[in-house]
């Protein structure tokens, strides 16, 4: 099958909007709805008609645009069943291992709790792409606001276990700040050092650093690398379970 067309655009302070379009079936998905006017402009520029919103989690910077999009287009709103009372206009609540058929596109729902308790990821195995919301960021991860560190560690592990060439679209542009933290935790990781420099160049030119890829994250995201000896030694936790090293890294990032 042909790949869907994917359009990513910056909106709000540091969010990304993403549209996924299947030209043959006239299906257009918006991944989350951070900002209705920005999404409507992006749709109009391409002549696409919105058919679905796929929501990753209930936070306002991912859902505030839903009511306006719903009334303008009559789109179907799909989102985490576990957060159904907190998501406006939700039509269909989903959870792992649900599969969604959207025209010719097929998405698998993965439960990725931690940032919020019901956070989900949409993985499109045939298109080789996943929309991870605020669970994983380039060289970073979301804050643990509702779940536990153990939960978040398991969620990140699910994303890291996807095929290496899976493209990852994330909710925010936090790459440079994450990269600086990563280099502080694992200064001997040359790929990480190089990636930070690359990200800084892109941001200085006003370009996005996303999407990222699973294989790149495995090599340069210190949160996924919490079991790595150099990182364990750096934080002084050589022998505790890996999720505790991860929890320590997340705490350090909050104060970085
Ligand atoms: Zn969020
Ligand atoms: Fe967010």
Give structural notes.
This protein has helices at residues 36-46, 60-63, 66-73, 149-160, 175-185, 190-204, 214-220, 229-235, 242-255; strands spanning 5-11, 15-22, 27-31, 52-54, 76-80, 92-94, 99-102, 105-111, 120-124, 129-133, 136-137, 140-141, 167-170, 212-213. A hairpin with a 4-residue loop joins strand 9 and strand 10 (129-133). The chain has a single domain, classed as Ribonuclease Z/Hydroxyacylglutathione hydrolase-like (Metallo-beta-lactamase, Chain A), CATH 3.60.15. By secondary structure, it is α/β, with parallel strands linked by helices. The model has no long low-confidence stretch (mean pLDDT 97). The strands form 3 sheets. It has a 6-stranded mixed sheet with strand order 1-2-3-4-5-6, with helices on one face. Strands 7-8-9-10-13-14 form a 6-stranded mixed sheet. A two-stranded antiparallel sheet has the order 11-12. The structure holds zinc ion and fe (iii) ion.
In terms of DSSP E residues, the strand content is 15-25%
Rg to the nearest angstrom? 18 Å
Number of domains: 1
Q: Strands of the largest sheet, in order across it?
A: 1-2-3-4-5-6
Task: Tell me the structural class.
Answer: alpha/beta
Largest sheet: 6 strands, mixed
TL;DR of this structure?
The protein is an alpha/beta fold and 256 residues long. It has nine helices and 14 strands. It has one domain: Metallo-beta-lactamase, Chain A, CATH 3.60.15.
Main attributes?
Metallo-beta-lactamase, Chain A, binds fe (iii) ion, 256 residues, six-stranded mixed β-sheet, 35% helix, binds zinc ion, alpha/beta
Structural topology:
Layout lengths: L4 E7 L3 E8 L4 E5 L4 H11 L5 E3 L5 H4 L2 H8 L2 E5 L11 E3 L4 E4 L2 E7 L8 E5 L4 E5 L2 E2 L2 E2 L7 H12 L6 E4 L4 H11 L4 H15 L7 E2 H7 L8 H7 L6 H14 L1
Parallel strand pairs: 3-4, 4-5, 5-6, 10-13
Antiparallel strand pairs: 1-2, 2-3, 7-8, 8-9, 9-10, 11-12, 13-14
Fe (iii) ion binds next to helix 2.
């Amino acid at each position: 099958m042909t790949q869907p067309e994917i359009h990513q655009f910056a909106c709000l302070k540091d969010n990304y909007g993403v549209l996924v379009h299947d030209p043959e079936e006239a299906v257009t998905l918006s991944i989350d709805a951070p900002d209705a006017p920005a999404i409507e402009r992006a749709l109009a520029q391409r002549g696409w008609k919105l058919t679905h919103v796929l929501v990753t989690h209930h936070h306002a910077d991912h859902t505030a645009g839903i009511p306006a999009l719903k009334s303008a287009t009559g789109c179907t709103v799909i989102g985490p069943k576990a957060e159904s009372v907190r998501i406006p206009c939700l039509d269909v609540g989903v959870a792992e291992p649900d599969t969604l058929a959207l025209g010719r596109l097929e998405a698998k729902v993965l439960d990725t709790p931690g940032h919020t308790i019901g956070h989900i990821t949409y993985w499109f195995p045939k298109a080789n792409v996943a929309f991870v919301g605020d669970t994983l960021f380039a060289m970073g991860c979301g804050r643990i606001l509702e779940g536990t560190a153990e939960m978040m560690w398991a969620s990140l592990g699910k994303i890291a276990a996807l095929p290496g060439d899976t493209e990852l679209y994330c909710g925010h542009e936090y790459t440079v700040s994450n990269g600086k933290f990563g280099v502080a935790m694992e200064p001997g990781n040359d790929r990480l050092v190089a990636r930070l420099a690359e990200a800084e160049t892109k941001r200085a030119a006003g370009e996005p650093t996303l999407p990222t890829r699973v294989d790149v994250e495995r090599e340069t995201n210190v949160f996924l690398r919490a079991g790595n000896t150099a990182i364990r030694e750096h934080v002084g936790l050589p022998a505790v379970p890996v999720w505790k090293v991860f929890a320590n890294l997340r705490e350090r990032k909050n104060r970085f």
